[in-house]
Amino acid sequence: MALIGKLVKAGIDITAKFQSVEDNPQISQENQLRELLNQAKNTAFGKYHGFEEILKSDDLIASYRNEVPIFNYEQMHEQWWSRQERFEDITWPGKPHFFARSSGTTGKSSKRIPITKEFMATMQSVGTSMINSLHEFNFPETLFESEVLMLSSSSSLDQNEQGFQEGEISGINVSNFPDWYDIFYRPGKEIAAIRDWDERVEAIAEQAPEWNIGAIAGIPSWVLLMLQRIIKRHQLNDIHEIWPNFQVFASGGVTFETYREDFEALCKTPITILDTYLASEGFIAYSSKPETMAMKLALNHGYFFEFIPFDERGINESGDLLSEPLILGINEVEVGQEYVLLLSSCAGAWRYAIGDVIRFESLDPPQIKITGRTKFFLNVVGSQLSEEKMDKAILELAEHFKTTINEYMVAAVKNEHGDYIHQWVLVSDVKSDGLAEKLDDLLKSANKNYAVARSKALKGISVKVISKDLYTAFLAHTNKKGGQTKTPKVMKDEKMKMLLEFISQP
């Protein structure tokens, strides 16, 4: 294995030298768009929007923007994607190979994103680029001798009525790993196929002593629970007692920072955290430099990006896109500015607003951080509660108790046991009896990820009710009293602690 580690590291070093020579970002992006349009020009979407004529234009990008409107999921699905299970060549040549189910963070239910064979190839291509970027981190050879544990959703996919396989994107990826991945991939295909999360993690914990894990990939909340289960089962002081070569955690899905202290408590030695932007819509960005958690945009992998300023130039007060927002290219963005991301891809997504807000941390190379969604959301432990779903639950709660709830504030905080809960403060005259239980039930029915989080890392919710007078006094206390000012509905834990301290005063 030592020889393998030397060879792998040497191969990455050599490949990284070639990868370091990259085209100008604007040229790269124009080339990606041209290739996408060429491949899709004979689809129904391509013919309807005149891809053939766009390709003849002297200004390809401007022509594309003029001819193709911006789509959200509902528009893309209703107008185009919903036909792909019955007909070929709708938004991309042929039919999708899979459908990726996302959590339905901003919609009424889970989204179904088409996954093509070309799209799967881009996911692997970006993954390879991320591996090659490990050259920058100067990891020891022992990392490349060890195995990689990927904590995904189940790789057992469902089959819909039309015969298409569906699942979450991580499960789809794992189900399509080539056989040679078995050399280093853990927990292996058999365990990964277990549908029940607890059973899958229990199987991982049982097999853990037999593995030499050097890197782990997954969502922090679930990975943390897995590590805790392993430590408890084998009566360890820390995870490095069983996996001494564990050096890297590739994080995704939720912000890692709120979990940093918990991970440090489980590790004997420091580990390197790599952030990833891997969504149902694509593997969009990844950490490539050791000195930053910012992620490098995947500009050469089958994606064309556009950016809408996340301010009055692009959105309204409700967080919705303007009818004619300002659209910027990769050559027009600024460091420190937030943008709504538009994506065109080889999955047959065209000028698609995936709902994420990103901020540029650098331009050479273009590196980003995810700062949120176009709608505010609460996602510390993977609950993925959007402001829209919380608003709906609060309205239903008020209707159930035959009252009004003027405002609400919520934050993810740790209770006395160190577990995360959702702390709610409602502005109303209703009695608090039964509020927490009913609100919990409403949120579970509104979002499957919240229901899953409540059964795992999110241990409960707490509800406090304050009068409108007390709420107004708090606004005055924080210098936010005024006709058009209010506290954020989704608070940081420090702000929530300040609010709780204020309302508990005699």
Automatic annotation (TrEMBL):
Residues 389-494 form the GH3 C-terminal domain. InterPro entries: ANL_N_sf, GH3, GH3_C, GH3_M. It holds the Pfam family GH3_M. Signal peptide: none annotated. Residues 299-373 form the GH3 middle domain. One of its GO terms (molecular function) is acid-amino acid ligase activity. GO terms for cellular component: cytoplasm. It comes from the Bacteria. This is GH3 auxin-responsive promoter. It comes from Algoriphagus aquimarinus. The lineage of its organism: Bacteria, Pseudomonadati, Bacteroidota, Cytophagia, Cytophagales.
